[in-house]
Amino acid sequence: MNAPDLTEKQLSSTSVYDGRLLHVKEDQVLLPNGNTATREYIVHPGAVVVVPLLENGDVLMVRQFRYPLQRDFLELPAGKIDADEDVLACGQRELLEETGYAAKAWQFLTTIHPCIGYSDERILIYLARDLTEHAHQRDEDEFLENIRLPYDTAMEWVRNGRISDVKTMVGLFWAEKIVEKRWVP
Q1: Catalytic residue numbers?
Q2: Considering the entire predicted model, what is its pTM?
Q3: Which pLDDT score is estimated for 185?
Q4: Does residue 104 sit in the same domain as residue 150?
């Protein structure tokens, strides 16, 4: 059975906004039925999320204020991929920068696309183990607090909504499968 072609073909593209991090586009597209439509979307450089597991099984997280929602969130360390930067190098940089920890063992978990209706953002998730503590290297506009949580507590906080950041939730659920040896990559 042949699947129908659902591809929308770009007819034109306009940059609506070019910011330091995000770029907004408005495209005119040709739909599969021959009609045209407008598509607005955000162009994002991509990001890496790190699930840092400490020797005792605790997960290292960060608490930070997120301006768009006007509140603190508990998250896994993460950051955007710089132009031409290797994704693993990005994860290693962000872990050290945000938490002051470095890891000797790295394992790729998955790639997620968190906002497919309005952004091309992709987030790669890594598990980091065999951690050593160093001095953090935060940007001057970055204010974070390290939080060490027993893994079971972190998962309970996901289940009860105390942790609601989607990249953190997905990262914790993937790592849970590996920690409990229910999935071996």
Answers
A1: 140
A2: 0.91
A3: 59
A4: yes
